[in-house]
């Protein structure tokens, strides 16, 4: 986008964009700053912005109380695992829908999306009982399965809209050359689909990482991810603003960093067929 | 080219997704349906007997039911308006060749990565708290009385928190769509002397229609089941002022441990969700047809 | 220095990620209160004394904890080996056969030392089903400096009308000092604990002998009106979202003239490391209504119990015995001082001169616990045991819904009369649904 603006406008737009951007980002910045304050400074009025005694004691305290690293590992296993499994199931389905559409394709797609509208709490007890009987409560496997199922509709849909934009002529040409299905996917489709798949994966990882109903209700100790970690900081006794900030920073830092580093990739595929 | 052969392969490829999702939906749903006709309270085992439509009757006549229904719609509607409106504004700004565009974009998308529990905790304690919150400090500095956000405007507060999380998402998708806007068409319109407003209304907005539809669809799916934000901040109160349908079912299921009642609520919510889904499919059908 | 501690902690965490060396791993579900967090920090002592047993902590906020352990025990999910539960749950669960009897916690456990009022609340048909970790009643905490400044003297056994006057007199909004802080956050264990205590001590009751709710009676109207008026005149802003923790933070930072809440708060508000007002706190019994000899019967204990069907019974018992023993108390005293030991469970603690000296609040706490009468919590006869709660399974749901109404009344969104009417209607519905009212 290389449109030109008058210098005056450019400055005005820049200022406006920065102000709005900082405003939107401010809650996160403020949390990170507060996490380095002492509890007393955290609630000081008027609050100090940068000029306080920076301390790491909140992080030490949080680490003493909970096994942060283990929660991170669980979060990683669940979000990446469910994404990988989801991909294995969703790619063929989306591929089939995009390249051999039938009258029912749209209907199936919409039905899949509608399963996401079920209120989780309404079906919580059956899932809980089934998981108990299968021995899946508080296991990484169980949670990975749930996350896969919860996000599968979005994955299928996102991949479908992405695949659909791949021109069919190329496939025809490949078929003319006598390419087999496997080759078709590997040499023709894959290179074109990679950005869409990458973006689908990223979105799915973010959604799975932040999911806070199933992860909280189906885990106890062994499989508890970061959502459970942060749950132990909601309103503990006494002054806890700084400690809460430290725990919050620790909970969102990994995904925020991942998100920032991959945002270009994420954005590129995040169109759901909206760009045509 | 859709021969019988490729068609059956296509079916085979779709089978895992369809079967798994069907299982994921039908098994719990049929159990929920069954439970909804039982007098089934976790705290009183051994008393599960057939209750007919008793649970439905109680759920629908619950004084909180209508309020929760209205709150759900208000919440979804307001967040959609704020996030799409704000997201559009942000996307238009970010689409300009401004200084530090990349960094501003990073700042804007950040809230989307924050887990709902954390964002609710942060907003509740660090901003909306009437004594220690930053808003209270600001009000104090201006000589105004501090507003107790979560009790005097509970639903609005939740709408704000949820909008903050979803605005970046809308901005991102709309920005991506904007970047694919045909530049020549824009310039031609500019040459013809069309004003900025007209260009926006006649070229940009129609171009964004599909993207906006997509944002609405995805956000609706997630907004219908907003839960963590309410649990952490207001617990549905004061009164039922910020109780939505998900939260109401939650109070039945995990506060009263009334599995029967919660299941009836779950079924009702499923029916309502399907009505919304049908409505959305119509909308999508119009706007997403290729 | 601090950075290195952090790094060390991280390394230790990595090492702990694989507790594979131990034969038995106990998963302990507990609440994120200060005393429990201290127990978790000190638990290395237990692991050192019991090689072969490793501990796995699941610390949660109170409501989350309750949901998770209740779901787990009712469905026999078996995710936890030791559960932290309230005295409200113990008898209801024992009746269902969900808990293991805890009669044999070892020879030197001295179960007879547990205070009778506390012990009785954990006993079902003559058998102890949970061991108390700490116990509390309610008391009044007040700022001696503010009282002096206002020329007021706190009687040992104040009445509600005195409290009302005093609170309004102390309030100085320009200075950010509010006469009284009380719970307002909706929840059966939050605002309803206080409001039920208030109501009990003003002659109201939840149910009559036929289980009909009593919110349409004048006693309830008087109690709720008193509460709402008082908080409007002398309470902090946003009181309707304040629970125990929020009020504790307010009191510790010097914003409250008085605070009526759980007795455990006493050690936090007098701890100079956490509290700005540690030197200026006085204590008195929970106020009572004119001519009424009830202080509300607040009695709460956090207890450790073992779910029936557990496969690690011996290890779990060993842990419970360790955590609720006299030796644990002494260990805390040695490490963090006598004022910080878990209070309200053992008679011997209150006879200990070192504790009496270190804890100015010991005497009032003991009196408050002894004054609680769970069998007869209200002035008039009631069909339930309880105090700040009612001992039926439905109470969690009812209490929270009623709490929502009262919280809305406190926020000014509805009137006191509306709140009482809604509460009455809701409770009657639920009691009918539960089959209490025929």
TrEMBL record, chain A:
It is a multi-pass membrane protein. GO terms for cellular component: plasma membrane. It holds the Pfam family BPD_transp_1. GO terms for biological process: transmembrane transport. Residues 72-262 form the ABC transmembrane type-1 domain. The lineage of its organism: Bacteria, Pseudomonadati, Pseudomonadota, Alphaproteobacteria, Rhodospirillales. It comes from the Bacteria. This is Carbohydrate ABC transporter permease. CDD domains: TM_PBP2. It comes from Roseospira marina. Belongs to the binding-protein-dependent transport system permease family. Its main location: membrane. InterPro entries: BP-dep_ABC_trans_perm, MetI-like, MetI-like_sf. SUPFAM superfamilies: MetI-like. The keyword Amino-acid biosynthesis does not apply. The chain crosses the membrane at residues 12-33, 72-96, 108-131, 143-163, 184-209, 240-261. It is found in: Cell membrane. Keywords: Cell membrane, Membrane, Transmembrane, Transmembrane helix, Transport.
UniProtKB/TrEMBL annotation, chain B:
It holds the Pfam family BPD_transp_1. Residues 69-280 form the ABC transmembrane type-1 domain. InterPro entries: MetI-like, MetI-like_sf. Belongs to the binding-protein-dependent transport system permease family. It is found in: Cell membrane. The keyword Cell membrane applies. One of its GO terms (cellular component) is plasma membrane. PANTHER family: BLR7065 PROTEIN (PTHR43005), INTEGRAL MEMBRANE SUGAR TRANSPORT PROTEIN (PTHR43005:SF2). Gene3D superfamilies: MetI-like. This is Sugar ABC transporter permease. SUPFAM superfamilies: MetI-like. Keywords: Cell membrane, Membrane, Transmembrane, Transmembrane helix, Transport.
TrEMBL record, chain C:
The keyword Ribonucleoprotein does not apply. The keyword Methyltransferase does not apply. It is found in: Periplasm. Pfam families: SBP_bac_1 (PF01547). This is Sugar ABC transporter substrate-binding protein. Its main location: periplasm. Belongs to the bacterial solute-binding protein 1 family. Residues 1-22 form the signal peptide. It comes from the Bacteria. Keywords: Signal. InterPro entries: Bact_solute-bd_prot1, SBP. Coiled coil: none annotated. Gene3D superfamilies: Periplasmic binding protein-like II (3.40.190.10). GO terms for cellular component: periplasmic space.
């Amino acid at each position: 986008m290389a449109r030109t603006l008058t210098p005056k406008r450019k400055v005005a737009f820049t200022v406006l964009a920065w102000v709005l951007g900082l405003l939107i980002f401010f809650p996160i910045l403020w949390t990170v700053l507060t996490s380095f304050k002492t509890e007393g400074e955290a609630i000081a009025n008027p609050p100090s912005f940068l000029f306080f005694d920076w301390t790491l004691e909140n992080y030490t305290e949080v680490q003493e109380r909970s096994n942060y690293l283990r929660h991170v590992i669980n979060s990683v296993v669940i979000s990446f695992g469910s994404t990988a499994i989801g991909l294995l199931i969703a790619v063929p389905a989306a591929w089939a829908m995009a390249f051999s559409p039938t009258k029912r394709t749209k209907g199936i797609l919409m039905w899949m999306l509608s399963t996401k509208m079920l209120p989780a709490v309404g079906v919580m007890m059956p899932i809980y009982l089934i998981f108990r009987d299968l021995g899946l409560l508080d296991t990484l496997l169980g949670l990975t399965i749930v996350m896969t199922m919860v996000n599968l509709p979005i994955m299928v849909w996102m991949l479908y809209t992405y695949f659909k934009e791949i021109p069919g002529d190329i496939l025809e040409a490949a078929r003319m050359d006598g390419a087999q299905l496997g080759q078709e996917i590997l040499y023709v489709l894959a290179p074109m689909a990679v950005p869409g798949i990458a973006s689908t994966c990223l979105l799915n990882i973010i959604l799975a990482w932040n999911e806070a109903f199933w992860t909280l209700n189906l885990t106890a100790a062994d499989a508890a991810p970061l959502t459970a970690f942060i749950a132990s900081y909601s309103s503990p006794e006494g002054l806890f603003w700084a400690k809460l900030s430290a725990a919050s920073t620790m909970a969102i830092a990994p995904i925020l960093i991942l998100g920032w580093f991959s945002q270009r990739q994420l954005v590129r595929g995040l169109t759901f067929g909206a760009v045509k | 080219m859709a021969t019988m052969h490729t068609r059956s392969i296509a079916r085979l490829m779709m089978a895992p997704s369809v079967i798994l999702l069907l299982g994921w939906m039908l098994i719990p749903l049929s159990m929920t349906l069954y439970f909804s006709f039982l007098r089934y309270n976790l705290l009183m085992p051994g008393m599960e007997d057939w209750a007919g439509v008793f649970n439905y009757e109680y759920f629908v006549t619950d004084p909180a039911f209508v309020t929760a229904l209205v709150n759900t719609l208000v919440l979804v509607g307001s967040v959609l308006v704020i996030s799409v409106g704000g997201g559009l504004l942000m996307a238009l700004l970010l689409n300009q060749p401004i200084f530090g565009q990349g960094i501003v974009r990073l700042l804007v998308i950040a809230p989307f990565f924050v887990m709902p529990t954390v964002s609710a905790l942060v907003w509740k304690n660090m901003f909306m708290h009437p004594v220690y919150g930053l808003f209270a400090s600001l009000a104090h500095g201006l000589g105004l009385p501090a507003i107790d956000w979560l009790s005097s405007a509970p639903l609005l507060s939740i709408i704000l928190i949820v909008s903050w999380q979803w605005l970046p998402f809308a901005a991102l998708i709309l920005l991506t769509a904007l970047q694919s806007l045909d530049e020549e068409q824009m310039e031609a319109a500019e040459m013809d002397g069309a004003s900025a407003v007209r260009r926006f209304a006649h070229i940009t907005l129609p171009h964004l229609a599909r993207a906006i539809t997509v944002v609405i669809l995805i956000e609706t799916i997630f907004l219908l089941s907003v839960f963590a934000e309410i649990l952490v901040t207001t617990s549905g109160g004061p009164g039922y002022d910020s109780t939505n349908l998900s939260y109401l079912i939650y109070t039945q299921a995990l506060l009263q441990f009334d599995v029967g009642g919660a299941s009836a609520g779950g079924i009702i919510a499923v029916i309502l969700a399907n009505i919304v889904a049908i409505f959305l499919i119509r909308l999508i059908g119009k706007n997403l047809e290729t | 220095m601090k950075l290195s501690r952090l790094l060390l902690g991280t390394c230790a965490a990595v090492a702990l990620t694989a507790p594979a060396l131990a034969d038995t791993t106990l998963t302990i579900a507990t609440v994120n209160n200060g005393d429990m967090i201290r127990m978790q920090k000190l638990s290395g002592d237990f692991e050192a004394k019991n090689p072969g047993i490793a501990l796995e902590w699941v610390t949660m906020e109170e409501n989350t904890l309750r949901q998770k352990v209740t779901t787990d025990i009712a469905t026999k999910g078996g995710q936890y080996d030791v559960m932290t539960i309230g005295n409200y749950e113990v008898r209801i669960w024992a009746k269902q056969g969900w808990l293991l009897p805890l009669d044999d916690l070892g020879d030197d456990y001295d179960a007879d030392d547990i205070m009778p009022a506390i012990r009785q609340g954990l006993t079902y048909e003559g058998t102890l089903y949970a061991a108390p970790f700490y116990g509390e009643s309610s008391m009044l905490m007040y700022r001696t400096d503010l009282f002096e400044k206002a020329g007021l003297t706190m009687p040992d056994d104040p009445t509600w009308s005195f409290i009302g006057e005093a609170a309004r007199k102390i309030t100085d909004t320009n200075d950010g000092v509010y006469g009284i802080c009380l719970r307002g956050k909706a929840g059966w264990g939050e605002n309803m604990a206080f409001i039920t205590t208030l109501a009990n001590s003003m002659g109201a009751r939840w149910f009559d002998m036929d289980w009909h709710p009593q919110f349409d009676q004048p006693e309830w109207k008087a109690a709720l009106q008193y509460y709402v008026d008082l908080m409007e005149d002398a309470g902090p802003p946003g009181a309707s979202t304040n629970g125990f923790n929020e009020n504790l933070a307010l009191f510790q930072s010097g914003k409250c003239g008085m605070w009526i809440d759980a007795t455990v708060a006493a050690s936090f508000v007098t701890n100079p490391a956490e509290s700005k007002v540690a030197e200026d706190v006085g204590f008195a019994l929970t106020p009572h209504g004119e001519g009424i000899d009830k202080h509300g019967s607040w009695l709460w204990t956090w207890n450790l119990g073992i779910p029936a069907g557990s496969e690690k019974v011996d290890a779990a018992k060993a842990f419970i015995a360790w955590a609720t023993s006299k030796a644990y108390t002494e260990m805390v005293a040695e490490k963090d001082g006598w004022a910080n030991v878990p209070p309200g469970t053992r008679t011997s603690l209150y006879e200990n001169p070192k504790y009496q000296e270190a804890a100015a609040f010991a005497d009032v706490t003991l009196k408050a616990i002894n004054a609680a009468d769970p069998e007869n919590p209200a002035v008039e006869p009631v069909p339930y045991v309880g105090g700040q709660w009612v001992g039926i399974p439905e109470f969690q749901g009812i209490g929270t819904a009623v709490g929502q109404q009262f919280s809305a009344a406190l926020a000014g969104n509805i009137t006191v009369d509306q709140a009482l009417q809604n509460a009455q209607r809701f409770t009657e519905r639920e009691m009918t649904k539960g089959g209490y009212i025929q």
